[in-house]
Amino acid sequence: MRAFIINTDASFSMKWRRGAWAYWIKGDDVLLKSAGMFPAELPNPGLAELLAFSKALGEINKLIPKQKRWETKLYINTDCTYVIHVIDGTMKQSKYMTLIKAIRHALVGYQVRPQHVKAHTGHRSGRSRMNHWCDKEAKKIMKEEGYLDERQ
User: Fold this and answer.
1) N or C terminus of the chain: which is more exposed, having fewer CB within 10 Å?
2) Whether 13 contacts 152, CB under 8 Å
């Protein structure tokens, strides 16, 4: 059984309506880390978090052929309960249902375990450290692009 740990986070500016994303993906023989700016304005931080996860899932799906997904576990760590509700199917209504359905379709076949990570705790657990890395990288991009709010 192959397994991947996916960590994602987004940073969002209410003032500028801009966001950045980061993911950290670890598998048996894979380590993928990336961060970037979303190309356009976004209406809210929940969508930024969902798009950050979608980017990471897209990377996983490039690695795993559809016929191998049934033998692959995804441990998904996020500090966003909205993303967890999308993954576990408890999100029933949203103005982003097209994106949500696409994410759920992209998850078909995998054994999925979403896990909530409490953000900004300073804990030393692996999940907390990776969440901190994703948070730091997304904020670094926001700062470089001039969109980091002073309170962030």
Assistant:
1) N
2) yes
DSSP conformation class of 66: G
The number of C-alpha atoms within 13 Å of 136 and in the hemisphere containing its C-beta is 10
Total-model pTM:
0.93
pLDDT digits over 92-123, tens only?
899 999 999 999 999 999 999 999 998 655 65
- The answer to whether 91 and 85 have CB atoms below 8 angstroms apart is yes
Query: Which stretches within 6-125 are classed as H helix?
Result: 45-63, 81-88, 97-107
CB contact set of 27 (below 8 Å; sequence gap of 6+) = 2, 3, 4, 5, 63
Q: How many CB atoms are closer than 10 A to CB 36?
A: 15
